[in-house]
Design goal:
Blueprint lengths: L3 E6 L4 H8 L1 H6 L1 H6 L6 E6 L11 H13 L3 H14 L2 H18 L2 H17 L3 H21 L3 H14 L2
Antiparallel strand pairs: 1-2
Helix pairs in contact: 4-5, 5-6, 6-7, 7-8
Keywords: Signal
Organism: Lyngbya confervoides BDU141951
InterPro entries: TPR-like_helical_dom_sf (IPR011990)
Length: 170
């Protein structure tokens, strides 16, 4: 039984979305609305808790372990379980597992690994001629890459933080 669901993201992104697209400043300035790019729309993995399988000898069994760990926000063990699931997976299962593991990497703050997994998943989806999943994963990857760029300090910000730290230290 596949327990992978999707949760739609788009204009209803909640707090994260309002931070990403700056809804408070957008609402105050209509000129920004006209010049802003459309928000990225994609679906992300969601995880249903399932009973653990009796034997952990299949990709699906390890995927269940990964889902359960993810539900508990135990990202480390979720990633370990996804690694095992990917090792045991049939070729046609790998794209979905890479997509799910990529999202866990993103939630863990490992943006480069997330982007790499999503790129590999996109390539596999193309090979499988699954255009819808391909487009979704590409949107997820763009979102993550944008997040990573926004969180990287500019060289000037890096200098300022070093100066602030240096002035505090004896």
């Amino acid at each position: 039984m596949q327990s992978f669901n999707h949760q739609s993201f788009g204009l209803g992104l909640g707090l994260i979305g309002s931070l990403l697209i700056g809804t408070s400043s957008v609402a105050a300035n209509p000129a920004i609305v006209a010049s802003s790019p459309p928000p990225q729309v994609f679906t992300t993995p969601t995880y249903d808790r399932e009973p653990l399988p009796k034997a952990l000898n299949t990709a699906q069994a390890w995927q269940t372990v990964a889902h359960n760990a993810m539900r508990d926000k135990d990202y480390h063990n979720s990633l370990v379980a996804y690694n095992k699931a990917i090792d045991l997976a049939f070729p046609e299962q790998r794209a979905l597992l890479l997509e799910e593991r990529g999202w866990v990497y993103y939630l863990s703050g490992y943006f480069n690994q997330a982007s790499q997994d999503l790129q590999r998943a996109a390539s596999l989806y193309l090979d499988q001629e699954d255009r819808q999943s391909y487009r979704n994963v590409i949107q997820m990857r763009r979102f993550i890459d944008t997040q990573a760029r926004q969180l990287q300090p500019t060289p000037r910000q890096g200098e300022l933080s070093q100066l602030d730290t240096a002035s505090i230290l004896p």
